[in-house]
Amino acid sequence: EKGGYEHFMLKEIYEQPSVIKDTYRGRLLANKGIIQMAGIEDNLEKFLNAERIIIVACGTSWHAGLVAEYIFEEFARIPVEVEYASEFRYRNPIINPKDVVIAISQSGETADTLAAIKLAKERGAFVFGVCNVVGSSISRETHAGAYTHAGPEIGVASTKAFTTQITILTLISLRLAKAKGTLSNSDFHRYLQELEVIPEKVAEALATNDIAKTIASIYKDAPNCLYLGRGYNFPVALEGALKLKEISYIHAEGYPAAEMKHGPIALIDEKMPVIVIAPKQGHYDKVVSNIQEIKSRSGKIIAVVTKGDTQVRELADHVIEIPDTAEALTPLLTTIPLQLLSYHIAVMRGCNVDQPRNLAKSVTVE
Ligand code: F6R
């Protein structure tokens, strides 16, 4: 049932090219310039009239929501707030009938997310679900939704659920951008084409497995680890750190790279591995200067870079190359080596990768 893989987690990591494709199949018609999802088409007016989108989720799904915040604001120009469901539900939040709430949940059973949905509904918001498990409580409680087609995720650490959530949310924001005219025609078509070839690029990113394993063998005994990224890849840094802590029990923190100098830089010494997500687009130059700051304090730098990168390669102790893509889609690729790195470190430390201590696959109590 593990399909020849040693653990479900590894199998699920390797399934990502095909489940991302399953998630956009029939919804993304790149050559025709069409994105269609029943849940969006049926409620298009609600989305187009939305003054704000509030995303509620927990854990890795919350990280997917953060990536979506960047994508929705950039593509569809709709203000987005991303909330931990557990905080949102107890805060007496301000919710207006013109708010659209998107709840993201792999299991569809997370107690806090479910409670946040009920509260938003009571206050008149339209609530849209992004779930993986068909017929789950959250998929039934929401007004409409779109399923990720990741298939059953058995490993407790979320992997393919995360990348398929990002895929769906990207499709939604592109659909809205088209309706609102907030992306140029050429950009819209370019994103559709890029999204269509993403599965092949994810497959290429999986070829970093050997280097991830080598890096894992060097840093497996580190007591701490720092993950840095900017823009679209800031949430990927958070997700990379979560993946490492939950399965390997190494303390890890994710930060927006620019926040370094506001505190975390004090932690850097020659024993601290720092994983920096540095694809060539966007804030590349700024990330390079962040890397220089780490290097001058003797931190160990593991950088995820775009294939062919030379500048970071000169500074970093290790580089992991991923294929080039549109900046907004880089999280789908940069995530992959971080999953592999955590996996190998956990295996080398003798941890129970698929069922880490103290964790449950669905958190049905608050
Ligand atoms: C991390 C992880 C958890 C879940 C969180 C939300 O790998 O699996 O952080 O992401 O418990 O679960 P869902 O998405 O089922 O609501």
From TrEMBL:
Location in the cell: Cytoplasm
GO molecular function: glutamine-fructose-6-phosphate transaminase (isomerizing) activity
Superkingdom, taxonomy of origin: Bacteria
Record EC number: 2.6.1.16
Main subcellular location of this protein, as a coarse class: cytoplasm
Active site, renumbered: K361 (for fru-6p isomerization activity)
Function: Catalyzes the first step in hexosamine metabolism, converting fructose-6P into glucosamine-6P using glutamine as a nitrogen source.
Known partners and oligomeric status: Homodimer.
Name the UniProt record assigns to this protein: Glutamine--fructose-6-phosphate aminotransferase [isomerizing]
UniProt source species: Flavobacterium gossypii
Taxonomic path: Bacteria, Pseudomonadati, Bacteroidota, Flavobacteriia, Flavobacteriales
Gene label: glmS
Residues represented out of the complete protein: 249 to 614 of 614
